[in-house]
């Protein structure tokens, strides 16, 4: 029954994603949702290293920017076809992630987070200052849309929406396979206790680096999709605020769950859109809402659902003591 309910929920989300373009009243809504999907894909990757492995990477948004700039530089400056540049974005980020992971993952806890924060800022400075490579503050403009197949063209918002949606579905499915495998249980064992995991024969460094690389590859590919969707890039993409945004998505949806980061990444952007009528004051309203959510829903939306479900299950199950007392005959029954 639990498996059926899980499949039913995922099927509902999938169907809603398929029919959304027919419900959207304009192309702007499609663009907002496509961008939300891109950041959802990156957030799913951050959740792997943070929620499942217990290492908070504050350079995650910068890795996404590296993937985006890889696509932008190759397509605009070197006329490389989009899909080759897209694959290159994943490869470049994987190599960079392995190098950063080998150094940073020797640290633990907040020391690791502070180190990655510094790494992310270095990436931001490189993107902003290396004019001959990244165009610096002049931005990269004119990035081509993803190449179409046959009669399908991704120049228009609707086909581009379905392309990004397909990558998100594939990314979530692959993450489901990872976290439900022996490798995923290894990551969770490291999250729960380094010492216990090591005593079980788990190679801590190798598995932490692997989780880190898989995580940033998600960010790099999301960045490649972002470049093909938005079609221009600026250094601000490498700012730490994007990592904080993705962290917020995880906290609101439910960190360490598969559906939580996805729900948070889809809900929060739309909430900010609906608060735009407040202009600069919208964050005065939005900030306290997030604080209240973190205080009263520390496990996020998915965590609240699971707690309610567990509570209902306990109430529905009769206590063993009361059952045994009811089953025993009364004194009058025994004399009878």
Could you describe the 3D structure shown?
It is built from 16 helices and two strands. It is mostly helical. The protein has one domain. It has a two-stranded antiparallel sheet. The radius of gyration is 23 Å and the shape is globular. Residues 319-330 have a biased composition (Polar residues). Keywords: Cell membrane, Membrane, Transmembrane, Transmembrane helix. It is a multi-pass membrane protein. The chain crosses the membrane at residues 7-24, 30-49, 56-76, 82-103, 110-127, 160-179, 209-228, 248-271, 283-305.
Total number of helices: 16
Helix content: over 70%
Neighbour order of strands in the largest sheet: 1-2
Number of strands: 2
Give the helix/strand class.
Answer: mainly alpha
Largest sheet: 2 strands, antiparallel
Q: What is the count of distinct domains?
A: 1
| Unreliable segments of 5+ consecutive residues | 1-5, 323-327, 331-336
Radius of gyration: 23 Å
Mean pLDDT: 86
Q: Sketch the topology as an H/E string, one letter per element.
A: HHHHHHEHHHHEHHHHHH
Strand percentage: under 5%
Shape: globular
Q: How many angstroms does the end-to-end distance come to?
A: 44 Å
